[in-house]
Amino acid sequence: MPHSFHNPVAVHCGQGSLARLPHILAGRRVALITFPEARGLGLVARLQAMLGDALITVIEEVDPNPDVAWLEPLYNAFWRDEARIDAMVAVGGGSAMDTAKVLMAGTASRRFGELRHLLAAGQPFAAARTMPLIAVPTTAGTGSEVTPWATVWDAAAHRKYSLHLDTTWPEAAIVDPVLMLTVPAATTVSTGLDALSHALESIWNVNANPVSDSLAISAAQDIFACLPALRADLGHIGLRERMAHAALKAGMAFSNTRTALAHSISYEMTLRYGLAHGIACSFTLPMVLEMAWSRSPERDQVLQRLFGPDLTVAAGHLRGFLQGLGVRTGFADYGIADDEARAMIARALQGARGRNFIGIQAA
Fold first, then answer.
1. In whole angstroms, what is the distance from residue 216 CA to residue 262 CA?
2. How far apart are CA 352 and CA 201, in angstroms?
3. Over the chain, what HEC string results?
4. pLDDT, position 122
5. Beta partners for 36?
6. 296 Cβ partners below 8 Å, 6+ apart?
7. Are strands 10-13 and 87-92 parallel, antiparallel or unpaired?
8. What are the residues whose beta carbons fall under 8 Å from the beta carbon of 177, sequence distance 6 or more?
9. Among the listed residues 267, 307, 315, the one whose alpha carbon sits nearest the alpha carbon of residue 288
10. Which is nearest to 306 in space by CA: 195, 169, 214, 211?
């Protein structure tokens, strides 16, 4: 069948690639969005020295899982002062990049309430104004540096919104594994499993194509081979680089397919039970693999390239991999009864991401 693949992000990879940032910005005035620990790690000072007077403002108290209550005053203040800024640089994990993508989508009113209303309506819309974004991941997992999506949380309403505009693709990504050397073991595992979920979710996906398949298989193979070794040797720059490239490939894959059922389940697990995203979207992977198997001969061929021909062996391998990293793989492990788990899966299948899953027709 005919297929297409599109990703407009210019990617700069490898040890020391952060040094390319001034060249990429070419003198543009910058707002830096980063995580609270970045200053203590010396990263803010390094960027200030690198960018000089071009660095106009630093937003460094980014919340994990950015919530509308936190985003609203930040957004309103940002667009009050936007005339001073030509571009945005997001340095951090998914939360920093999500925050930057929300900020870059300016509404006609320059008020967050308008954006929140548009997100809640779930209808396509265009930003009235926008800014270019350079995305610099400091974890190997999110893939957000090569996707247009941002997740916005509304904890008070128990809702999650997805921002996705033609203008929220980053202009460029800088993937420098040196920036990931200080990531602790738990975060290394959680973000690495987020990347694994991106890879697998892009395979059991109605939007999959041969290009996304190739990227996803390569990413998953690298993660299976690399992540346990990296957890045992966090300072190994070669393993950090391999994981960074795996997360990048997984991000490229799902930039075209979007995610599917495991991610759809994860949102409720995070909102209702507070489970960290990387664990919430990965603990169900063996179950979803079992649901996906035999739904599509074409998809089976791709899954078998990764796992071999035997479902029992494949699911056992995936469970063993996760459990070996300390991840429990059953709903009951998180205090969720069987009836509620079945209801959660049914709700997830009806969500926007759940409808991308190839097994939905038979569920």
1. 16
2. 14
3. CCCCCCCCCEEEECCCHHHHHHHHHCCCCEEEEECHHHCCCCHHHHHHHHHHHHEEEEECCCCCCCEHHHHHHHHHHHHHCHHHCCEEEEEECHHHHHHHHHHHEECCCCCHHHHHHHHHHCCCCCCCEECCEEEEECCCCCCHHHCCEEEEEECCCCEEEEEECHHHCCCEEEECHHHHCCCCHHHHHHHHHHHHHHHHHHHCECCCCHHHHHHHHHHHHHHHHHHHHHHHCCCCHHHHHHHHHHHHHHHHHHHHHCCCHHHHHHHHHHHHHCCCHHHHCCCCHHHHHHHHCCCCHHHHHHHHHHHCCCHHHHHHHHHHHHHHCCCCCCHHHHCCCHHHHHHHHHHHHHCCCHHHECCHHHC
4. 87
5. none
6. 358
7. unpaired
8. 14, 15, 140, 237, 240, 241, 243, 244
9. 315
10. 214
Q: Write b or e for each residue in 72-89: b if 16 or more Cβ atoms lie within 10 A of its Cβ, otherwise e.
A: eebbeebbeebeebbbbb
The alpha carbons of the chain give a radius of gyration, in whole angstroms, of 20
Contact 291, 358 (CB under 8 A): no
Structure-token pair, residue 227 = 């992540």
Looking from the CA of 283 toward its CB, the CA atoms found within 13 Å total 21
Measured CA angle at 354 (ends 63, 216), to 5 deg: 80
Both tokens assigned to 310: 């035997």
Q: What is the pLDDT along the chain (363 residues), one digit of tens a residue?
A: 789 999 999 999 999 999 999 999 999 999 999 999 999 999 999 999 999 999 999 999 999 999 999 999 999 999 998 889 999 999 999 999 999 999 999 999 999 999 999 999 988 899 999 999 999 999 999 999 999 999 999 999 989 999 999 999 999 999 999 999 999 999 999 999 999 999 999 999 999 999 999 999 999 999 999 999 999 999 999 999 999 999 999 999 999 999 999 999 999 999 999 999 999 999 999 999 999 999 999 999 999 999 999 999 999 999 999 999 999 999 999 999 999 999 999 999 999 999 999 976 543
Q: What are phi and psi of 73, to 5 degrees?
A: -65, -35
